[in-house]
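Let us work through a complete example step by step.
Step 1: write down the sequence.
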Amino acid sequence: MTDTGSQRASDAASCTKEPLAVRVGAELAGSFIVFFAIYSFTTFGTALFGINMAFIALATGIAYAAVTLVFSKVSGGQLNPAITLAAILTGKTKVLDGILYIIAQVLGGIPHREDLADRCRQRLRQRLRLRIHAEQRERLL
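Step 2: predict the structure and record it as tokens.
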């Protein structure tokens, strides 16, 4: 069975049956869950398996797929401001809906921003300490 334009239009229209607040809430919750999953995979996956980019990429893809599957019937499951902007520009999402989606998506990622920033600062300090210790050892030798 092929996907026709009318089927795509009806699928897009089915997302607008929910009230705007529910759709924006779905984008907020979906973005929060995706960011939490990515943070968890990078934190615990790195701690358990070392830095494994294939694991992180696969886990991120699975997280996006699962959250999109759950929230796609409510809001379209865009979950990314770039995707939402493209949907606005192509007319698949109304401008007001898209702007509210983008705000919700950014707000969904904010709680994890500070944790990621702390991790980056800790890694930078650790690398600087290792570099300083290596330079001090070289001077002693």
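Step 3: interpret the result. Helices lie at 5-15, 20-49, 53-75, 81-89, 95-140.
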